[in-house]
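Let's study a protein:

===
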Amino acid sequence: MSQSALSRELALAIGLAAKALPDTQPKQLVQTLMTVLGYPLTLQKIQTLSIAQYAEAISKTSGSQILSPDCRESLDILQRSFANQSLTHEQPEPIIVNEQSEKNAIRVAVASQQGSLIDDHFSTCRYFYIYQVSPHIIQLSAKRKAETRQMMKAEQKQVFRADLINDCQVLYSLSIGGQAAAKVIKQGVHPIKFSQATRTDLILEQLQYVLQTSPPPWLAKAMGFGSSFSNNRNLQESAR
């Protein structure tokens, strides 16, 4: 990855991380990171930053005590954003899981700027982050580039993007238009949009809980269960 590309990713990651902190501007956070890690800021330095170092540095820079949950969320956003840079941008990598988990897993496409947040639009996002979710695992399996150098009309772009995630069962995005949603559904993908940026890990954990309890019939089918799975699970819960 070139230094210019790294600098752009760094700016985006710091911007998102700063939003998780009260009364903190991205410029302030840059100064804080520079104070702790020195120049230049690198992936390796940021990944070794502990929550204690981060919280102490932010408190000194801001002149006030920052709550631990805010610091943890901010650091998580920053470190996860950079961890995602090492993923392939084109074709998904093979998913290595045990046979039982793979059989009961689904794929989820997330329109995201960095992967840690559902914060981008289906028709304009640069990447789709592909997660595998089963009742027992959640793992990121690929980062797919949604842009192409080829000039396309709006409808062609929608078809291209729908094809790009046609091995998924669910799509999470900040927004998706009616025509685009129809093309996604045609590929067998269920689109779900959010009214505001939302943490990816929290939503995937909620989805995992649904898989563990009583997934709707279409989702149970996608996981490889019979159509009677939900009814059987409900009867089991009632009998307890």
Q: What stands out?
A: Strands lie at 106-111, 117-118, 127-133, 138-145, 170-173, 190-193, 198-199. Residues 3-19 form the longest helix (17 residues).
